[in-house]
């Protein structure tokens, strides 16, 4: 894994097409527009009015979107719909070699699908901005941006795309998709799982909150802002998450057994 910080290198404007213009796609688009890039979008939902207000060209037809000769096609679909959507795209409509990048929260799955589906002349960059509309609301400075240069021939386009995030001050983390998924399973997935458990327990703020409990409330509220589709995607599409869930279950059983053993010890003392 290599790490680099922000760079002030000159930025070349790109034609960027976004596939899936939901909250996260819109979030990224606003910064890209601010930097002077030309954006287009396509999505299953009709965002034509919103795109008009943002200065983004919206394509209802995927064919016309692919014919628009974008330098970069950025895929911002959900984890679970990624494979289906990509395989349904009429990629024969591409007019020239294009850099395809994704921003999914898992990485081995999109890498495998992109390598399987895309034309050989298409470049592939797997990325994961480790932030979103809430954490990145006031800027991206010092926020992590992971990327894996899976198949890059056009170094200029790839460098110019990465420069978008460098320019905003992101901490640039180059690592393999496999390494990312290993780390994410024991961090992001576990964080979301604990938050979901706390939500199922319906924990609420009390009049005697400790700082630790307030942190748990914040964790629950933060993770529940994300859809169950996103959370389940972290499990279904990351092979390492299954092991982490098993580890969590095992850890809970161990703690429960320790408490039971201590209770038995205390009860034995009480009877003396």
TrEMBL record:
Pfam families: PDH_N, TYRAAT1_C. SUPFAM superfamilies: NAD(P)-binding Rossmann-fold domains. Residues 14-272 form the Prephenate/arogenate dehydrogenase domain. It comes from the Eukaryota. The keyword Transcription does not apply. Residues 238-265 form a coiled coil. InterPro entries: NAD(P)-bd_dom_sf, PDH_N, Prephen_DH, TYRAAT1/2, TYRAAT2_C. Keywords: Coiled coil, Oxidoreductase. The keyword tRNA processing does not apply. This is Arogenate dehydrogenase 2, chloroplastic. It comes from Ziziphus jujuba (Chinese jujube). The gene is LOC107413940.
């Amino acid at each position: 894994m290599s790490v680099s910080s922000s760079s002030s290198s000159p930025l070349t404007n790109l034609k960027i097409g976004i596939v899936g213009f939901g909250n996260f796609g819109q979030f990224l688009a606003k910064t890209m527009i601010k930097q002077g890039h030309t954006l287009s979008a396509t999505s299953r939902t009709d965002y034509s009015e919103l795109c008009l207000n943002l200065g983004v060209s919206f394509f209802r037809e995927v064919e016309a979107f692919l014919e628009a000769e974008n330098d970069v096609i950025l895929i911002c679909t959900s984890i679970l719909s990624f494979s289906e959507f990509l395989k349904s795209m009429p990629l024969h409509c591409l007019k020239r070699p294009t850099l395809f990048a994704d921003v999914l929260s898992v990485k081995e799955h999109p890498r495998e699908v992109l390598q399987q589906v895309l034309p050989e002349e298409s470049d592939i960059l797997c990325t994961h901005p480790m932030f979103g509309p809430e954490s990145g609301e006031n800027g991206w400075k010092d926020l992590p941006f992971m990327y894996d240069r899976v198949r890059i021939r056009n170094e200029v386009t790839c460098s110019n795309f990465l420069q978008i995030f460098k320019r905003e001050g992101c901490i640039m983390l180059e690592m393999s998709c496999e390494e990312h998924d290993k780390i994410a399973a024991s961090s992001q997935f576990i964080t979301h799982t604990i938050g979901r458990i706390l939500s199922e327990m319906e924990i609420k703020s009390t009049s005697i909150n400790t700082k630790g409990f307030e942190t748990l409330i914040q964790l629950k509220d933060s993770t529940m802002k994300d859809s169950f589709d996103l959370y389940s995607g972290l499990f279904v599409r990351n092979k390492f998450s299954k092991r982490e869930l098993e580890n969590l279950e095992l850890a809970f059983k161990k703690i429960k057994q320790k408490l039971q053993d201590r209770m038995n010890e205390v009860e034995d003392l009480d009877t003396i």
